[in-house]
Design brief:
By secondary structure, the protein is α/β, with parallel strands linked by helices. Helix content is 44%, strand content 13%.
């Protein structure tokens, strides 16, 4: 089943020219372990599963990468600038996951341990359906990072990942995201 879900995800991504263009743009930066993930992948799949021929605009395109040797915010800013030059108007968000522990307490109010890899980072994202990322490799194959599997993504289930998201933050996210307004077949685990 997992191999079928991986093939299905690759087919959905390959079938979306705009998403593939974004993957090529991210690849062109040469950032270590760079992926597009989280809400961008969830939205791609759930729009597809809801039969939306013209997917709605994204709130952001999450570009994650990992380099523990350079945690300067300037590197994220430079990558963002380059992506904006490649695709003006695309709502890029670029984050070196190796440095999340440096800003997370000020933003979310509690400390977190440093992440060890891009896979570790993806495993920590807010809901299990968003703990998925795609990388376009140099040979144009798609690599999938899905440490918790793809069941919640393809089951259209919103479920809190307790590793990093408190119940309070999860409830706030549910209120802000409006999942059911966009995707009426989604199930929410409170």
């Amino acid at each position: 089943m997992a191999a079928d879900d991986h093939a299905r995800l690759r087919d959905i991504a390959h079938g979306n020219a705009a998403f593939m263009a974004m993957l090529r743009q991210v690849r062109s930066l040469g950032l270590p372990d760079a992926v597009i993930g989280a809400g961008a992948v969830r939205n791609l799949v759930w729009d597809h599963l809801h039969g939306l021929e013209t997917p709605r605009s994204e709130s952001d395109i999450d570009v994650a990468w990992f380099d523990a040797g350079d945690l300067s915010p300037q590197r994220d800013a430079e990558a963002l600038r380059r992506l904006q030059a490649l695709a003006p108007g695309t709502p890029w968000e670029v984050t070196n996951q190796a440095g999340v522990h440096l800003w997370f307490p000020a933003h979310f109010g509690h400390a977190v341990e440093p992440l060890r890899s891009i896979e570790d980072a993806v495993a920590s994202w807010p809901e299990f359906a968003t703990c998925v990322a795609l990388r376009l490799e140099h040979d144009d194959t798609l690599s999938i990072i899905a440490p918790h599997g793809l069941d919640d993504l393809f089951g259209m289930r919103v479920r809190r990942n307790p590793r990093r998201v408190s119940v309070e933050t999860y409830r706030q996210r549910l209120a802000e995201k409006g999942y059911l307004a966009r995707w009426p077949r989604v199930g929410i685990v409170a």
